């Protein structure tokens, strides 16, 4: 993308085959472990001007309730008086509103309720914004946009106004290709979130997932704030599954190549032979996966072609996930049934932190304060790393599995069959605003993992 942007002048006014099969069964819910499939044969570049210290900051306590701010996003207007607009004048503010609503921080207010006289008010070379009509309908913030489309090119001015302060808080002029307008919207979304919460948003960050069924499973990738996905790895001689993302855009997944189990890292096969499961990256980029031997399944560090086990209790250890301070959570059967254990990232005896009953699919928040996991092959819960503070995030809505935190820790992506088929959902990290990601996508979507890398700003 070759988009360029400049700041606008300031205005005042984020184990063995038999063992796993016997333990977890062959039900759809076993996808939450992300293991059975392999055991069965078969943006815009821009810099925004910083304005005054935000008048409001949203708390981001994962166990708390977010305060929602009322925000209004009217249809975009011609960038210059007397100009014309196309379908982007409605499509782009709709995309922006969808982004902000997804975070759980904002409540969209219908702009048609306002008695504003001039729809271009607040834009450059237009009358100043009159805050009174917006205050009357309870708006906390307003985003005004102006666009000009010429062939394949677009210019877009976006401004955020604070009704309480009576001031413009952000202003940005984007210039680039029409095809990149969505990415411009993602960049501006992140900066709006930064201005109001003190931390940038994560729109434009990557989510990798599995699509297809059985032997036809392959790997695809999407971006938060997009309604499309692109192929990463198509089924070749057998299914691909259990994808993960790491620092520096690292990728890894498992592949059943005819009768061989393969671990593919950054497009290269780094293991072929014994069954390998649930790869994950440490924060430093070290790759760890579960490797099944004759009597146990152990978490193993893969460094080039060399392998080094970091667990070895004689049971089944899978699904590693790592904290930023060097700890590891994982699923183990060492205590009988499958549960979530925590230990050092270098290995050692783990301590169980999950309640009684089957617990799988741990995901450690990038802030290190919470672990999400699937309880009893159905619902997603949060727990503190010491096992305290258990919170259930889903309930009574089908089977929900494989949670993965956004790179800022404020959102969670997961897979659910609540709509009659397997789709990806996103929610706030406190369980709020659960909604389908890419609702028009055709086909099954499972096993999502969110990149730990923040999108470029």
Tell me the domain tally: 2
* Ends distance: 13 Å
Shape: elongated
How would you name the CATH homologous superfamily of the largest domain?
Answer: TolB, C-terminal domain
> How many separate helices?
5
Computed over alpha carbons, the radius of gyration is: 24 Å
CATH class of the largest domain: Mainly Beta
Just name the CATH architecture of the largest domain.
Answer: 6 Propeller
Summarize the structure in words.
The protein is mostly beta strands and 457 residues long. The chain has two domains: 28-42 and 204-450, TolB, C-terminal domain (Neuraminidase); 44-197, TolB, N-terminal domain (Rossmann fold). It has five helices and 31 strands. The protein has helices at 17-24, 36-39, 88-103, 132-136, 181-197, and strands spanning 4-7, 69-72, 77-78, 106-109, 141-150, 153-162, 167-177, 206-211, 218-223, 229-233, 240-246, 250-257, 260-265, 268-273, 276-281, 287-292, 297-303, 306-309, 317-322, 327-332, 339-344, 347-352, 359-364, 371-375, 379-383, 391-392, 400-405, 411-416, 423-428, 435-437, 445-450. The strands form seven sheets. Strands 1, 2, 3, 4, 5, 6 and 7 form a seven-stranded mixed β-sheet that branches. A four-stranded antiparallel β-sheet has the order 10-9-8-31, with no helix packed on it. It has a four-stranded antiparallel β-sheet with strand order 11-12-13-14, with no helix packed on it. Strand 23 and strand 24 (371-375) form a beta hairpin. The two termini are 13 Å apart. The model is unreliable at 1-64 (pLDDT under 50).
């Amino acid at each position: 993308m070759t988009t360029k942007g400049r700041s606008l002048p300031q205005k005042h006014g984020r184990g063995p085959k038999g063992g796993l099969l016997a333990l977890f069964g062959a039900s759809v819910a076993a996808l939450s472990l992300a293991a059975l499939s392999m055991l069965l044969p078969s943006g815009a570049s821009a810099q925004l001007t910083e304005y005054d210290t935000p008048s409001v900051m949203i708390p981001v306590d994962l166990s708390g309730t977010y305060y929602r701010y009322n925000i209004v996003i009217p249809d975009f207007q011609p960038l210059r008086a007397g100009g014309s607009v196309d379908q982007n004048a409605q499509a782009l503010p709709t995309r922006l509103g969808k982004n902000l609503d997804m975070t759980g921080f904002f409540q969209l207010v219908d702009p048609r309720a306002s008695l504003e006289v001039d729809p271009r008010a607040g834009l450059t070379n237009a009358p100043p914004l009159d805050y009174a009509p917006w205050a009357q309908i309870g708006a906390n913030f307003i985003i005004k946009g102006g666009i000009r489309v010429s062939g394949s090119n677009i210019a877009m001015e976006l401004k955020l106004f604070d009704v309480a302060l009576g001031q413009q808080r952000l202003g940005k002029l984007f210039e680039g290709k029409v095809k990149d307008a969505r990415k411009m919207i993602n960049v501006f979304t992140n900066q709006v979130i930064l201005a109001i919460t003190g931390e940038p948003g994560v729109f434009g960050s990557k989510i990798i997932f599995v699509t297809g069924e059985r032997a036809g499973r392959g790997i695809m990738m999407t971006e938060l704030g997009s309604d499309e996905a692109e192929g990463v790895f198509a089924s070749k001689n057998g299914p691909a599954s259990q994808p993960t993302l790491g620092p520096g855009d690292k990728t890894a997944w498992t592949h059943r190549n005819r009768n061989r189990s393969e671990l593919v890292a950054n497009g290269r096969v780094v293991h072929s032979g014994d069954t390998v499961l649930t790869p994950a990256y440490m924060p430093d980029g070290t790759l760890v996966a579960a490797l099944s031997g004759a009597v146990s399944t152990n978490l193993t560090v893969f460094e080039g072609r060399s392998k080094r086990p970091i667990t070895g209790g004689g049971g089944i250890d899978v699904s590693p996930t790592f904290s930023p301070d060097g700890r590891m959570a994982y699923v183990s059967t060492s205590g009988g049934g499958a549960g979530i254990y925590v230990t050092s990232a270098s290995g050692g005896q783990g301590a169980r932190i999950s309640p009684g009953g089957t617990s799988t699919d741990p995901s450690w928040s990038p802030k290190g304060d919470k672990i999400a996991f699937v309880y009893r092959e159905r619902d997603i819960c949060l727990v503190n790393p010491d096992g305290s503070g258990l919170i259930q995030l889903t309930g009574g809505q089908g089977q929900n599995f494989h949670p993965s935190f956004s790179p800022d820790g404020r959102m969670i992506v997961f897979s659910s069959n609540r709509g009659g088929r397997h789709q990806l959902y996103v929610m706030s990290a406190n369980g709020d605003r659960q909604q389908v990601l890419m609702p028009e996508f055709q086909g099954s979507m499972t096993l999502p993992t969110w990149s730990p890398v923040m999108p470029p700003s």
